[in-house]
Design a protein that fits this description.
The protein is α+β, with helices and mostly antiparallel strands and 133 residues long. It contains three helices and six strands. The protein has helices spanning 7-17, 43-54, 100-117; strands at 24-28, 32-36, 67-69, 77-80, 86-90, 120-124. A six-stranded antiparallel beta sheet has the order 3-4-5-2-1-6, with helices on both faces. Strand 4 (77-80) and strand 5 (86-90) form a beta hairpin. The longest helix is centred in the last third of the chain and has 18 residues, at 100-117.
Length: 133
């Protein structure tokens, strides 16, 4: 069973994980973040299209694949998928079993929900960040 992580907590975690102020990214309700390497126009719409295509998991295909990263600067895990810029956060209190397979399956399930529900909860626009002089 998936437990909810609140939006404020998710946003703070992704801000730590993606500390570069020039990064643009969009956060979805269940913890999936789409990093926009070529941000253009309306970011939420751009990220939604990426997640609509690369979010839903399909067993037996590359859409069902995942990897698990244990980041140094945040508790919990980041679950990767078949698109390098689509990442899902799994909090330290979410999985009952902390094995890599359980964490990965939970992250994939969260990515699937985000990829089908497509509910944006935060947009981080790094396009206007200026370099310090």
């Amino acid at each position: 069973m998936m437990t909810a992580v609140n939006t404020e907590t998710l946003t703070a975690v992704w801000q730590r994980l993606l500390a570069d102020p020039h990064k643009s990214w969009v956060l979805f309700e269940h913890g999936t973040c789409v990093v926009l390497t070529a941000p253009d126009g309306e970011l939420a719409g751009q990220a939604t299209e990426i997640l609509r295509t690369f979010g839903p998991a399909h067993a037996g295909s590359s859409a069902g694949d995942f990897g698990v990263i244990d980041p140094e600067n945040a508790e919990g895990w980041v679950v990767t998928g078949h698109h390098n810029d689509v990442l899902t956060y799994v909090g330290p209190d979410e999985p009952q079993d902390r094995s890599e397979i359980s964490v990965g399956l939970l992250g994939r399930a969260k990515r699937h929900r985000d990829g089908t529900e497509l509910h944006v909860v935060h947009v981080e626009d790094g396009r206007g960040s200026a370099d310090p002089a």
